[in-house]
């Protein structure tokens, strides 16, 4: 069985660190904590789990801090978490079994990263990360902000998920890092431009966000999945201000970078539905139901659009056209994915009054 070092960088994480480490401590063989300047009880809490606690001065560079934490690892593989991550029990069991069975020739293992949840705990937003890597390959982190771990070789995709359960409100820390890079006159890579646009959008600085999304989409470089996502952010903004033409144009532009994604098909369906063009809306929602959610996708995925959302929308469209049988059928399919959804439950009562059961 392989041995694993858990490497973490932390700062003022007293509210979540114990929860994280309790979920991981029996899955790994050593824990490395790198503190970047905590002023709370983070380091005291860390001492309950490990003696390997190091200080690293914060220099506005996540990659530098993560690479330092990796340099302190001693085991065969390195695993990393953030302090507001947690491994749920189902995934803990998967992790234990995976650890026993992992072929030591594997260089990197990806795991799903679930970062969005509805009120019932269903995953709404996720993507994959290279999460467990062979130490001797000396893989490095790159990027001061929204950094990434560059891996290559023999890579496998596991069914293990890490759940991101943050309790803090969003800060402007990442935005400030990008602004400092701009002030220093540093040239942004396509990836920097994309994530800077995301930060601007999240902080409701929409005009600058759209400018940077457009810059990114017009660059020769950049990952195609990120370009699909960027099209969605711009489309959502234009939709929010009632500019359906631009919203539709950006959703359609996403097809330039990849085969249709369910998120964009549902966007297009919604534009037509809101104009009472139900037959055209049905075309796009039906297409979304025919697409298979890419299990190996490393890009951002809004799970709902690949499962219950198009069916609940088809329920409405078919009902508006007087086809109650198909409307009922699609509500039942939506219910199979999300049985406690308020819209699904409301529709069930509606169909009961029409004699469906």
UniProtKB/TrEMBL annotation:
Keyword set includes Transferase: yes
Enzyme class: transferase
Domain spans labelled Glycosyltransferase 2-like: 5-144
EC number assigned by the record: 2.4.1.-
Family matches, as CDD domains: Beta4Glucosyltransferase
GO molecular function: glycosyltransferase activity
Keyword match Transmembrane: no
Keywords from the named record: Glycosyltransferase, Transferase
Family matches, as PANTHER family: GLYCOSYLTRANSFERASE (PTHR43630:SF2), POLY-BETA-1,6-N-ACETYL-D-GLUCOSAMINE SYNTHASE (PTHR43630)
The protein, known as: SPBc2 prophage-derived glycosyltransferase SunS
Source organism per UniProt: Clostridium homopropionicum DSM 5847
């Amino acid at each position: 069985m392989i041995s694993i070092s858990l490497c973490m960088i932390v700062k003022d994480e007293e509210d979540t660190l114990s929860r994280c480490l309790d979920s991981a401590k029996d899955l790994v063989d050593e824990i490395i904590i790198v503190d970047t300047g905590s002023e709370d009880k983070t380091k005291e809490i860390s001492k309950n789990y490990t003696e390997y606690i190091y200080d690293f001065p914060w220099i506005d560079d996540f990659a530098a801090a993560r690479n330092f934490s990796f340099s302190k690892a001693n085991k065969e593989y390195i695993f990393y978490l953030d302090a507001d991550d947690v491994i749920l029990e189902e995934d803990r069991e998967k992790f234990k079994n995976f650890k026993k069975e992992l072929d030591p020739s594997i260089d990197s293992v990806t795991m799903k990263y679930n970062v969005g949840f509805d009120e019932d705990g269903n995953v709404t937003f996720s993507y994959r990360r290279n999460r467990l890597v062979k130490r001797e390959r000396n893989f490095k982190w790159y990027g001061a902000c929204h950094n990434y771990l560059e891996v290559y070789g023999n890579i496998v995709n596991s069914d293990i998920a890490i759940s991101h359960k943050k309790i803090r409100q969003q800060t402007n820390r990442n935005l400030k890092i990008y602004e400092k890079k701009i002030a220093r006159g540093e040239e942004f890579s396509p990836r920097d431009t994309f994530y800077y646009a995301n930060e601007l959008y999240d902080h409701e600085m929409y005009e600058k966000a759209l400018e940077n999304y457009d810059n990114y989409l017009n660059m020769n470089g950049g990952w195609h999945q990120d370009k699909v996502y960027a099209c969605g952010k711009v489309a959502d903004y234009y939709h929010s201000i009632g500019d359906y033409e631009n919203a539709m144009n950006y959703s359609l532009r996403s097809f330039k970078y990849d085969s249709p994604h369910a998120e964009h098909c549902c966007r297009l369906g919604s534009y037509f539905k809101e104009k009472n063009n139900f037959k055209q809306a049905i075309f796009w929602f039906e297409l979304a139901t025919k697409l298979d959610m890419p299990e190996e996708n490393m890009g951002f995925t809004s799970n709902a659009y690949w499962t219950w959302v198009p069916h609940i929308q088809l329920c409405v469209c078919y009902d508006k056209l007087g086809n109650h049988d198909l409307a009922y059928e699609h509500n039942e399919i939506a219910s199979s994915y999300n049985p406690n959804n308020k819209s699904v439950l409301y529709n069930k009562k509606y169909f009961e009054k029409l004699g469906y059961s």
